[in-house]
Design brief:
This protein has about 350 residues and is α+β, with helices and mostly antiparallel strands. The protein has 13 helices and 17 strands.
Length: about 350
């Protein structure tokens, strides 16, 4: 079975370490998103009003765009952004005459100087095609898919076997592997190889030049995660965050909140999910120091870490022997020059 995976939540936080006016403060994502959207709409509206856009717009077209910007950015009648309920309240609305108090907008210059418009806070989880809502995940974890497949093919599986050589023969293919009992060989009509390319690059083979170059050339991303188990789900009980991601500009990069077991007794957060240089730094730490880093930086956003933490588990995929990276990173050039060789049979 599958369940909804909530990767976008306007109630999660942005947290920018630094020296700006809004640095070292947790700010709801909805506040930043709507403030930036409002100011950008205001700036563009001013440009259209002053006929300073390098785009040919009729008077009617310009008016249509201005009306759209006013609605999209929450501008007032003077085309100025001064905050609205969509960014949240400093005093929540309630029953009777409790209409609530809209929070004051953050100044655009303060957000810029605090780094909240830097790449660390781009809305990739909301805009990237393969991450757009609605998303799903397997109940019990994504490895349930592999486990289900394993049950179907269990009689054919040979576990604990490390492949050391793949050799194309005049007819068929030979695979050499080693296990606890020694070295063995298998021969077959063909071999469907799903090894990660960095692993395959270190295995002896006699593939064609095009395939060998593609295997060696295509890089895999460096990435790591840590899971943190807590006694209670304080992010839900105290912060009213149900799923989604908090973004930071420190080595945590992101904190993921679970999309299941809402208001249960315990819970697990992804305490960091980082990439590239940040993943290398955390991956070079021992398990205890990774945990220490996650707790040290995480408590800046959630001080409840200190009293509610129980245990952790971390993984660094680029340092995992049979992965050596998170996933392949392609660009337009490698998709044209290298990837096609991996799509065709070899031998």
């Amino acid at each position: 079975p599958i369940q909804v995976y909530n990767n976008v939540n306007e109630g999660a936080y942005y947290f920018a370490e630094g020296k700006g006016p809004l640095s070292n403060k947790k700010i709801r994502a909805r506040e930043v998103h709507n403030d930036v959207r409002g100011y950008m709409a205001e700036l563009l509206s001013k440009g259209i009003d002053q006929s300073k856009l390098d785009t040919a717009l009729t008077k009617e077209d310009a008016q249509t765009v201005l009306e759209y910007l006013a609605a999209e950015g929450g501008l007032d009648i003077d085309k100025l952004y001064k905050a609205s309920a969509r960014r949240g309240y400093s005093e929540s609305p309630g029953a009777g005459n409790q209409s609530g108090k809209v929070g004051d907008a953050n100044k655009l210059v303060d957000m810029i100087q605090s780094g909240l418009l830097d790449p660390d806070f781009y809305n990739v989880a909301e805009y990237t095609y393969e991450l757009q809502m609605t998303m799903f995940q397997a109940v019990g974890g994504m490895d349930r898919i592999a486990t289900a497949l394993q049950k179907r093919v269990a009689p054919s599986l040979k576990l604990g076997a490390e492949v050391t050589n793949i050799t194309n023969l005049p007819e068929g293919v030979k695979v050499t592997y080693k296990d606890a009992t020694g070295e063995h060989q298998l021969q077959g009509d063909l071999c469907i190889c799903t090894l990660p390319l960095p692993v395959l690059s270190n295995i002896n083979h006699n593939f064609s030049g095009d395939v060998s170059r593609a295997i060696d050339y295509i890089g895999y991303i460096q990435t790591g995660k840590i899971g943190l188990q807590f006694k209670r789900r304080f992010w839900e009980e105290d912060d009213h965050i149900y799923g989604g991601i908090t973004h930071t500009n420190n080595d945590l990069t992101q904190i993921f909140y679970p999309s299941y077991d809402y208001l249960g007794k315990k819970g697990i957060l992804i305490g960091y999910y980082n990439f590239n240089e940040k993943a290398v730094r955390t991956g070079n730490l021992g398990y205890d120091d990774r945990e220490k880093l996650a707790l040290q930086k995480g408590r800046l956003i959630h001080p409840q870490y200190d009293t509610e933490f129980e245990r952790s588990f971390s993984v660094s995929w680029h340092k995992t022997k049979y992965s050596l990276g998170g996933w392949a990173v392609y660009n337009n050039e490698t998709r044209k020059t290298q990837y096609p060789a991996l799509l065709k049979p070899d031998g």
